[in-house]
Design brief:
The complex is a heterodimer of chains A (134) and B (539). Chain A is an alpha/beta fold and 134 residues long. Chain A has one domain: Rossmann fold, CATH 3.40.50. Helix content of chain A is 40%, strand content 18%. Chain A is built from five helices and five strands. Chain A has a five-stranded parallel β-sheet with strand order 2-1-3-4-5, with helices on both faces. In chain A, helix 2 crosses helix 3. Chain A is globular and about 40 Å long. In chain B, 48% of the residues lie in helices and 7% in strands. Chain B has one domain: TIM Barrel (Alpha-Beta Barrel). With 539 residues, chain B is an alpha/beta fold. The model of chain B has no long low-confidence stretch (mean pLDDT 95). In chain B, helix 19 packs parallel to helix 21. Chain B has an eight-stranded parallel β-sheet with strand order 4-3-2-1-8-7-6-5. Chain B has 21 helices and eight strands. Classes of the chains: A alpha/beta (134), B alpha/beta (539).
């Protein structure tokens, strides 16, 4: 079976990349193909990477409080590019009140501090679109 | 009569290791510190190598400075929080800036979207700095500013406000973080390439030794290295090796070591492993004293003394059962005090969720006051001195740090090590190992992978709305229309000219600031000359 392809991105100006890197490694150890974009990615760059890498999953790590600006833009661009079936997950510091809003815009996995790596791996395995066999 | 069993007492089936993975024995005895020479390795408090502290009287002379990091929203909102903290008995200010300010971007830049005033206060031009310190006399307080790449610009603004208030620069006291190496290593808030960034720092060393002699020109920081996932020993080693790099660059820039070294200060994390942290603080003082005296031949004793600020470990705070964080923070703060910190920030219980509410910030400050006034630990200097266990740990920490010094020296220095990704890789490894040990439940984090509670009641949190961004954007537009733009352009051109040459950038920066150039404009001027740094992402 083909490997699940995951783009892990750090949008915005924040440089705290510990979470993004730990998750990238955990997903790789779980058998996924992980592409880490590095820091300070605009929504356009993230969606560009998803398109170019033929990603099944886009994971964004946001700790700065900018999620309500970044996420809608990413979702809009994914739709524009016909990538609506890409599974989008977000990890970071997300106040409770924002969780339903993010879910409403199509972000399916929202992981707060302290989430076990295995839970994220399982979530992706259960929710990712089936990948076509070559 | 039944024979006594000779079976050794059974221990729990858990790894007896520190949070950094260091194995710990059940018992330490005199044999563990047979090699310790108290005269050589400890000295008295206030005496070389300062293992037991830099003051002969410890906290009997002066308590540590209770310095709570604060900043959010507009300058006016943060100004109010500062006044509240001073009224509550805080003894110094500490400014948190928002990400656009930290990254040298104005609020109207594309990457500032959603970030203005979120993680700290938004400072765009001198006008904002005037608002931030309105009604606060800069001559009468000490201020710490957590700013790195744009440190020269923000510091110049502070000096301009002091000038307006009629305060003498020669008496101003405070700290700018100004530590770019740990940004490349850990926190990643860099703008310019490493070598040009180092020049900005040595320019500040030279400028301050002449103009603002009491100012702490740099706060060499392990805090962020630890938060990024390093071990305690890595935090110690990389931070002090960064310190060595700054001193070397200062000397290479033609400065006399004793003209700037006394103004170098440090900033450590106080994490959850109580004894390991105390050992780290004690080892840090000893290592620095030896480095300054023996490696750099500093003559002034003030150059030998490692003074440090401590912050409790933000990364140890949990979003689950947040009230538990008060207890974690209290223990970490106690370790910092027993380690002899000069100033301390205690985190608030709600910081895994958001920036702290005023109530949570007050409780964090009260935690320090309880340690200072109720626990009795301030009566005595270095109470763990001579402990078999703690002295052994201190020696081990020192040895491990020196091993890292050797590796980095062989690479040619810390700038070279960073360019090769060495400290970055070491930290990424350690952070992944720790996460795995949590997943395997070898390490229990109460409320996260043990003693989990369903249906927790939410706690009140601070929510920063979008009015800050709107307000700062509107102000920026007005500023650009009303200031003397001819003067601004001339000042920025002079800054670029200096950056191309070898002059001290602080002087043209003062002129830019006085003309109300923005942080983004000043940084852009230097970006045009020096370019921007981009790291190769490693996982």
């Amino acid at each position: 079976m083909n490997k699940i392809r995951v783009v892990i991105a750090k949008p915005g100006l924040d440089g705290h990349d510990r979470g993004a890197k730990v998750i990238a490694r955990a997903l790789r150890d779980a058998g996924m193909e992980v592409i880490y974009t590095g820091l300070r990615q605009t929504p356009e760059q993230i969606v560009g990477a998803a398109l170019q890498e033929d990603a099944d999953v886009v994971g964004m790590s946001i700790l700065s409080g900018a999620h309500m600006h970044i996420c809608p833009r990413v979702m809009e661009l994914l739709k524009e590019k016909g990538l609506d079936d890409v599974l989008v997950v977000v990890g970071g510091i997300i106040p409770d009140v924002d969780i339903p809003k993010l879910q409403e815009m199509g972000i399916r996995g929202i992981f707060l501090p302290g989430s076990p790596m295995q839970q994220i791996v399982d979530f992706i395995n259960q929710n990712v679109r089936p990948r076509a066999e070559v | 009569m039944k024979a006594l069993t000779t079976e050794p007492p059974r221990e729990r089936a858990v790894p007896f290791t520190t949070i950094s993975g260091r194995p710990i024995k059940a018992l330490y005895t005199a044999a563990d510190i047979a090699a310790l020479d108290p005269a050589r390795d400890l000295g008295g408090p206030g005496a070389f190598p300062y293992t037991r502290g830099i003051h002969p009287t410890g906290y009997r002379g002066k308590l540590w400075t209770m310095r709570q990091f604060a900043g959010f929203g507009t300058p006016e909102e943060t100004n109010q929080r500062f006044k509240d903290l001073l009224k509550a008995g805080g003894s110094g200010l500490s400014v948190a800036f928002d990400l656009p300010t930290l990254m040298g971007r104005d609020p109207d830049h594309e990457l500032s979207l959603g970030e203005v005033g979120k993680c700290g206060v938004s400072i765009v031009s001198l006008q904002d700095m005037e608002r931030l310190f309105d009604g606060i006399s800069l001559g009468a307080i000490t201020t710490s500013m957590t700013i790195n790449s744009p440190a020269p610009m923000v510091f110049a603004m502070y000096l301009a406000v002091a000038e307006q208030q009629g305060a003498d620069w020669k008496t101003l006291s405070g700290t700018i973080q100004n530590d770019i190496l740990k940004e490349f290593i850990a926190q990643k808030e860099y703008i310019f390439p490493p070598r040009q960034s180092m020049r900005l720092i040595t320019d500040i060393f030279a400028f301050c030794s002449k103009e603002v002699p009491k100012w702490n020109t740099i706060s060499v920081s392990g805090y962020h290295i630890r938060e990024a996932g390093s071990t305690s020993a890595q935090e110690l080693a990389f931070t002090l090796r960064d310190g060595i790099e700054y001193v070397q660059y200062g000397i290479d820039a033609g400065l006399d070591v004793d003209s700037f070294a006394p103004q170098i200060s440090f900033f450590f994390n106080s994490h959850s492993d109580f004894f390991e942290e105390i050992a780290k603080f004690r080892a840090a003082r000893k290592l620095w004293a030896e480095v300054m005296r023996d490696r750099f031949k500093a003559k002034n004793e003030r150059s030998w003394k490692l003074r440090f600020h401590t912050q409790t470990a933000g990364v140890s705070l949990t979003a689950q059962q947040p009230y538990n964080n008060v207890v974690r923070t209290a223990l970490q703060a106690l370790a910092a005090v027993l380690g002899g910190t000069q100033s301390l920030h205690t985190n608030s219980l709600d910081e895994a969720l958001a920036l702290p509410t005023a109530e949570a910030a007050t409780l964090a400050l009260r935690t320090q006051q309880i340690i200072a006034h109720e626990s009795g630990v301030t009566n005595v200097v270095d109470p763990f001195g001579g402990s078999y266990f703690l002295e052994r740990l201190t020696l081990d920490m020192e040895r491990e740090a020196k091993q890292y010094f050797d590796i980095i020296d062989r690479m040619g220095g810390m700038v070279e090590a960073i360019e090769q990704g060495f400290p970055q890789k070491e930290i990424a490894e350690a952070s992944y190992r720790f996460q795995q040990s949590v997943e395997a439940r070898e390490k229990i984090i109460v409320g996260v992978n043990g003693y989990v509670q369903e249906d927790e009641a939410p706690i009140p949190i601070l929510y920063i709305d979008e009015t800050t961004a709107e307000r700062q954007l509107a102000r920026l537009e007005t500023l650009r229309k009303t200031r003397d733009n001819v003067k601004v352009r001339a000042a920025l051109a002079a800054l670029e000219e200096t950056a191309r040459g070898t002059g001290n950038t602080m002087y043209p920066l003062m002129d830019c600031v006085r003309a109300y150039a923005t942080v983004g404009e000043m940084c852009d001027a230097l970006r045009d000359v020096w370019g921007e740094y981009e790291e190769v992402p490693l996982i």
